[in-house]
Design brief:
The chain is α+β, with helices and mostly antiparallel strands. The protein contains 8 helices and 10 strands.
Length: about 220
């Protein structure tokens, strides 16, 4: 996978646009509501501590490894979402005929890391301008997509996408889909914790490794020790 074709200092521009230009407005909009995961669904409850978001950003091996390293991220699980085939296998999803995207389901503590910050990282670590493709990975299963779990997430994601598009940080328009979360299917066990279990494999060394090094540079204060 090639890195996104960004303009000079794009990572800095994204941070400025999201955190400064929209930070106050988004925080008011989001309101810090908490949610818990119950059988793949979200049940709003003031007593619950964690929230959940589902991202598709190409190969879930890469996306999982990135979000696992963030402070405030409690759990990251690889799976499939957005399609119409129940309980799909990896092989079925790879055909591009199930409608599912490879995704990661992220449980996070909003008191430590906000949804806005997760969105910032989402847009920084993949190319949101290539339709159904991330580098050499081609197909609808590799599409850029945000599956929101509540209306607050939907509004924030739409605002951030609009702002980044207007700023023309990328040469091409953002094609990231913003869709309601409906159903999620956990991927096979060998996909879980993939990079941590296979870091010496060529794909992990040459594709995921550089992304993690980039992550350390652009999100230093949010990396787990």
């Amino acid at each position: 996978m090639k890195l996104p074709k960004l303009r000079l200092s794009a990572a800095i521009l994204i941070s400025i646009l999201i955190v400064i230009n929209y930070g106050e407005e988004l925080n008011k909009l989001y309101g810090g509501a908490a949610a818990a995961q119950t059988n793949g669904k979200i049940k709003m409850n003031k007593q619950n501590r964690y929230e959940v978001i589902t991202f598709g950003a190409g190969c879930f091996w890469c996306t999982e490894a990135i979000f696992q390293r963030l402070k405030g991220v409690v759990k990251v699980e690889s799976g499939y979402s957005g399609g119409n085939v129940p309980n799909p296998t990896y092989e079925e999803v790879c055909t591009g005929k199930t409608g599912h995207a490879e995704v990661v389901q992220i449980m996070f503590d909003p008191a430590v890391i906000s949804f806005t910050q997760l969105l910032e990282l989402f847009f920084k670590t993949h190319d949101p301008t290539t339709l159904n493709r991330q580098g050499a990975d081609v197909g609808t299963q590799y599409r850029s997509v945000i599956f929101y779990h509540n209306e607050e997430q939907k509004k924030i994601a739409a605002l951030v996408k609009k702002e980044l598009d207007s700023a023309k940080i990328w040469r091409d328009p953002i094609v990231t889909e913003i869709r309601p979360f409906k159903k999620y299917y956990k991927a096979e066990d060998y996909h879980q914790n993939y990079y941590n279990n296979n870091s010496t494999q060529p794909y992990c060394s040459f594709i995921i490794g550089p992304k993690l090094e980039k992550l350390k540079k652009i999100f230093t204060d949010k990396i787990k020790k």
